[in-house]
Design goal:
The chain is of the alpha/beta class. It has ten helices and 15 strands. The protein is globular and about 50 Å long.
């Protein structure tokens, strides 16, 4: 991890340019992404481990993919990062790709599905979990082999399914893709919620997000930066729209308004490089929470941070985060 991300680090056990779905070369799905070294810190004695392990391999319109798992194995959430990067970082933390049971897709934009077929082609045991509509959109909009359907397991929103010892429920989100969804993931008494790429927080998304102990929420842009930035007006309107992306203030107001004592981690994802910064996203979220009397840690392993009510961490855009044990 680069020095620029040092202050966002967390312990481990064990430019964003807007790129729309038509701006990506669909024949360029096997490009290499740079790899970064994984750094870890030991879990402090006395820390509580819920059993969940989480890492993001990259978060933004240049590519999205993360791992969530337990001792029973895990899943990849989206497939927009080069597999060699994913294999390397998994192996560095003692996880073989054979222990990854499946790939969950949130929607069919290229920065989330670019390497889906390559992953299943190289790992025959993997299956892709998505709705039939999402798979149809993926095949219509991208230059991907029809054979990817051989690896699909059909899921449906609001109907739970089980995988790798975890319970998954997909829910509706609002974005300009095909059959967009977030995921509520339950392990024992803990719930990890993924809510990315959404222009507004829908009623069903809010329902699941309100139950999260660990929340991965989009904080894509700073409104002032977007309004005064270099994007053409049509693109600004698209980003701001109900089918676009979530701005820092809306994400922060939602989390602050719905804070509960069970919420321990907030991971800010899909930050724009042109219209946001980690500092802006973090300060907006922190200010909203503190205004409601919630103490906020910076995700470090310092004694001061660890005693706070909730930790807030911005997932790096181009790099692998540290490996979290939650």
């Amino acid at each position: 991890m680069s020095k620029n991300n040092d202050k966002y680090r967390q312990r481990r056990l064990g430019d964003s340019r807007w790129i729309d779905k038509f701006a990506i070369d669909n024949n360029d799905f096997d490009n290499d992404d740079s790899q970064t070294d994984q750094q870890t810190l030991p879990l402090d004695e006395g820390d509580h481990w819920s059993g969940l392990q989480f890492v993001s391999f990259g978060s933004g319109s240049s590519g999205n993919c993360s791992f969530l798992g337990t001792e029973n194995g895990g899943v990849l959430i989206d497939a927009g990062i080069d597999p060699q990067h994913v294999y390397s970082d998994l192996a560095a933390n003692g996880i073989n790709i054979k222990n990854v049971k499946g790939i969950l897709l949130t929607h069919d934009h290229a920065d989330h599905i670019r390497y889906a077929y390559k992953l299943v082609r190289e790992n025959k045991h993997l299956r892709i979990y998505c709705t039939p509509r999402l798979m149809g959109g993926l095949l219509r909009h991208h230059n991907i082999s029809n054979r990817i359907k051989d690896y699909q397991v059909s899921i449906f929103k609001e109907i739970p399914f089980f995988l790798a010892g975890m319970k998954f429920t997909a829910f509706e989100t609002s974005h300009d893709a095909i059959d967009n969804m977030g995921f509520s993931i339950e392990v024992d008494s803990n719930t990890f919620v993924v809510a990315t790429d959404m222009g507004i927080i829908t009623e069903r998304a809010a329902h699941y997000m309100s139950k999260a102990n660990f929340l991965m929420i989009e904080s894509n842009y700073d409104r002032q930066m977007l309004d005064t930035g270099r994007y053409p007006e049509y693109l600004k309107a698209r980003v701001r729209g109900n089918l676009g992306h979530l701005d820092n203030t809306v994400a922060a107001q939602y989390v602050a308004s719905n804070y509960h004592k069970g919420l321990k981690w907030v991971f800010l994802c899909h930050l724009s490089n042109d219209n946001n910064s980690p500092d802006k996203a973090l300060s907006t979220m922190t200010a909203a929470l503190e205004a409601r009397g919630v103490s906020v840690g910076d995700g470090s392993n310092s004694a001061d941070s660890r005693c706070k009510d909730v930790q807030v961490y911005a997932l790096p855009r181009y790099e692998t985060s540290l490996w979290f044990v939650l």
